[in-house]
């Protein structure tokens, strides 16, 4: 089963919605309202504003018509190169993810194996530190349309940090949220990780 950031977001907001998105009949799904399309357009403008103001030097993946796993591999390739800012990267962790046994066991204590995990943070930002890539590592930045650092935003940020910890073999980096109007927040992931570990022990 594939656990994605969008599935986690749906579950946090409405567990029934998450269930129906997986097991429900697509034919019975209500058509999208025009309001949702308007929100998507506003979100695109907000992301563009953030990029222009804070990260004009970003680099996107070089390919678009490729599979999710290929996008994840392309993201890792950019991380290995030490690109300063990666836009629309893709994080994928599964049982076959190449990492040390120590980090596999650490991940198992937080989220169980037997699943595939997929995250799409808006940005991956390079900073000094030690990782399997060298003397640099990455932290995730999530851009949201809301005006408050909502719990569901923090949940996704923690999810991205955990995936990055496995991929780059570091302690989970401190993720960042950017909400309207261009407000930046650092997310303390410890409470959510502690709760997850207690659940799976």
Helical run tally: 7
Name the beta content range.
Answer: 15-25%
Classify the secondary structure makeup into a structural class: alpha/beta
Number of domains: 1
Question: What integer is the average pLDDT?
Answer: 85
Element order: H for helix, E for strand: EHHHEHEEHEEEHEEH
Uncertain regions: pLDDT < 50 for 5+ in a row? Answer: none
Ends apart, CA distance between termini: 21 Å
Overall geometry comes to globular
How much helicity do the residues have? 40-55%
Could you explain the architecture of this structure?
With 201 residues, the chain is of the alpha/beta class. It has one domain (34-200). Helix content is 45%, strand content 21%. It has seven helices and nine strands. It has helices at 5-13, 15-23, 34-54, 68-81, 101-108, 151-168, 190-200, and strands at 2-4, 59-60, 85-87, 91-93, 116-119, 123-131, 134-143, 176-179, 183-186. The strands form two sheets. The protein has a six-stranded mixed beta sheet with strand order 2-3-6-7-8-9, with helices on both faces. It has a three-stranded mixed beta sheet with strand order 1-5-4, sandwiched between helices. β2, α4 and β3 (85-87) form a beta-alpha-beta unit. The model has no long low-confidence stretch (mean pLDDT 85). InterPro entries: RecB_nuclease_TM0106_put (IPR019993).
What's the short story on this structure?
This protein is of the alpha/beta class and 201 residues long. It has seven helices and nine strands. It has one domain.
């Amino acid at each position: 089963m594939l656990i994605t950031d969008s599935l986690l977001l749906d579950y946090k907001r409405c567990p029934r919605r998450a269930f129906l998105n997986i097991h429900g009949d697509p034919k019975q799904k209500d058509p999208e309202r025009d309001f949702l399309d308007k929100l998507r357009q506003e979100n695109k403008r907000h992301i563009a504003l953030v990029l222009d103001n804070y990260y004009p030097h970003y680099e996107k993946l070089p390919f678009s018509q490729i599979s999710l796993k290929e996008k994840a591999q392309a993201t890792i390739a950019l991380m290995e190169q030490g690109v300063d800012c990666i836009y629309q990267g893709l994080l994928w962790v599964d049982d076959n993810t190449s990492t040390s046994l120590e980090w596999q066991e650490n991940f198992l204590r937080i989220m169980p194996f037997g699943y595939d995990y997929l995250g799409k943070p808006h940005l991956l930002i390079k900073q000094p530190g030690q990782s399997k890539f060298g003397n640099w590592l990455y932290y995730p930045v999530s851009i949201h349309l809301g005006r408050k650092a909502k719990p569901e935003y923090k949940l996704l940020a923690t999810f991205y940090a955990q995936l990055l910890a496995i991929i780059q073999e570091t302690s989970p980096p401190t993720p960042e949220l950017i909400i309207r109007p261009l407000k930046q927040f650092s997310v303390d992931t410890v409470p959510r990780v502690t709760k997850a570990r207690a659940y799976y022990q």
